Amino acid sequence: MSKAGRIDMLTIMAMRCNQKFDNLASTLARRYRKATIALQCQLHNLEAMKTEMDVSDNQLERWIIDINEWAEATTSPNDADVASRIEELVASVKRKSQRLYKDSDGSDAKDVPESAERSGRKKKILDFVVEKYNTLVPNAEKLTLDTILCDEIVWPWQLTHGDSVDLRTKRKAFDIVMAVRRLEEEKRILIAEMNKHWKSLCSRADTLKQMSSQLANVTSGETWGLLQDGIRGLKSLTLKNKQATAWQSMQRNFMFKF
């Protein structure tokens, strides 16, 4: 790459860097407002759920512990593999049943026999896998095809045994609490970034102020290796940057007030 090409590339990179710096404050402020609104929404959902279910903060923390313990629980690899296979097959059978119903009720009635045959094959496979699962678990956790193909089912391997609250309810509460904590963490990170950006801007303003003060007392360009025109140009550029930084500081101060 030629010298001129390198200079052009560095100039473009510097311009992009300056553009990112100029847009950083508005980006941080916009993300902070968005996180604040989302957090308020999740807090409202959390309070509504606590009121609806009459749950205390201590009970909620207990549910979170239950979910974590369930996620970390060590189960038999065979049980886990078979359970996962059952869930996949049930989802597949339900999809094929819906498609079969749609085909028989629409213009694709000629495809009904083939769809019915595929659905039947899936059900036979599912029946075999369910029988295998039932040989691995206690009687209380055994499954039947009619049960698992209904619309609302909580899988036995997803039930907790410490209280009467099913895992689905605890998982819903867990998801809301985790969303609240993630948004609170995001707000803390954004505040730290805004403080960092503000300090960087203040540091730039101090540097320019000091440089402007030094240039005000310069009568000769020998110290700086510049001619008189160069000194005047440097003074003008420093004053321009100083004013721009002061304007940016005022803008940031307005943006970061929430």
Automatic annotation (TrEMBL):
Q: Give the gene symbol.
A: LOC113052205
Which branch of life, at top level? Eukaryota
What name does UniProt use for this protein? Uncharacterized protein LOC113052205
Organism from which the protein derives: Carassius auratus
